[in-house]
Amino acid sequence: MIGIVIWVSCLKSETKEMSQNATSNKAFEIESNSIDYVDASQRNGHVKDLFTLWFCTNIAPLAVITGAMSVQTFHLNIMSALTAIILGHFFGASILALTSAQGPQVGIPQMIQSRAQFGRYGALLVVIFTTFIYLGFFTSNIILSGKTLHTVIPAIPVPTATVICAITATLIGIIGYHFIHKFNKIGTWFMGGALLIGFALMIPHVTADVLAKGSFNLKGWFAMFCVCAIWQISFSPYTSDYSRYLPKEIGIFKPFIYTYLGAALGTVVAFCFGMLAVSLFTINDAMEAVKTATGGFGVVLMILFLCNIIGHNAMNLYGASLSFITAIQTFAGKWIPTKSTRIILSIFVLILATSTALWASSSFISYFLNFIFALLFILVPWVVINLMDFYYINKMQYDIASIFDEHGGQYGKYNMKTLVTYFVGIVVQIPFLTNSFFTGRWANVIQDVDISWIVGMIVTAVVYFVFNQSKVTARDYTVSTKKC
């Protein structure tokens, strides 16, 4: 836990040095908001913090391991793997950044915003699914962090280490928004600096023979591109949660560009780190390859990765509690959740996930992650609907009072056009799916490459456009009439 102590000490030091800043003063205060609207008087965040949040969050062991797939699974050489990773992440990050840019305009978390698109009760579909994802990743990460802590300090048994890491992540999540941002702001310097050192140790070993390993093949290249794009898109349900405290006047571009660059660059660095390590050494375990490639510095990397897992898991805990509150508040229209509600539900998530983690088998992480990634096709139509509705249909304007209205206000209890679009977007993907549990009839249009998400995005966009074109036409006519 030495790394965590140093990390938090730096947090305290920075907070003290910047004591004149209102946001810094709030870093160690328990956040008072839950899913409620963030008033203009509380909008004092820094847009640059979106870069450090998404940069640091994505430098994690799972990203390193996934990056190694470009060589281990798809047999690409270093240069073709590099282009697939860069282009895939920069494409996917554009979608992630567009959802993040919504936060300052609406001032509410991402999932409750779905009521404006699906209706008050209709939004429960995506809220429940997202809650399940949060819980699964939180459980998987506390298992991973417990094993990592045990590796760093063998004297701590794995069960004890698991509980320690789970409680630490929960405490960060309970303190909330400002502390999560500050944690990742400090972490960016630690993780970014550590990977630079790691690259400096590995690059001298890149010889002509290493560069000659693998080859360019379109199937493998496109498969890796898809993996990277889906990686970014899968973070979309998180985004407004961490941008909603920014002033509305900041607009769209700045939140977009800082999120975009942070998410894309952080993940590209982590993916390439794993890709380079397994290119240098023929070792199946990517993290073992990293330790071998970086020598004695590998121990430092493991400690920092542990801190990063805990910080990332705090975001899973935070998101899970907000999604739980959103689901409960759907049936209690006049209830205004407080920070106490968020704390209680965070503790509930801690107990539930830790109990599962201690009970789970050694193969739980692998099985569950395969299951979650297999279900991501359910997320794709939501992303398309979310972006089209916010940017095209409603021109970045939502009625917040209707979102919290117990009868759904102008958005109603169900939006049947949106629900039909959502289910169509799911169904059209099924024949193209290829994962650990299911292979569709047309899954091998490109051998071993899952293109279902591309089909889902295109069809969902077309159907949603057709269903809502009359609404857009009527709005444009009203606006032009008023101008006349």
UniProtKB/TrEMBL annotation:
Coiled coil start-end? none
Q: What is this protein called?
A: NCS1 nucleoside transporter
Keyword set, alphabetical order = Membrane, Transmembrane, Transmembrane helix, Transport
What is a single Pfam family found in this protein's UniProt entry? Answer: Transp_cyt_pur
**What highest taxon heads this organism's lineage?**
Bacteria
Q: Which family does it belong to?
A: Belongs to the purine-cytosine permease (2.A.39) family.
Annotated membrane-spanning segments are 51-71, 78-101, 121-144, 156-180, 186-208, 220-238, 258-281, 293-311, 343-361, 367-388, 419-439, 451-467
Q: Which organism is it from?
A: Acinetobacter soli NIPH 2899
Which InterPro entries does the protein's record reference?
Answer: Pur-cyt_permease (IPR001248), Pur-cyt_permease_Fcy2/21/22 (IPR026030)
Localization in the cell: Membrane
What is the recorded membrane topology of this protein?
A: Multi-pass membrane protein
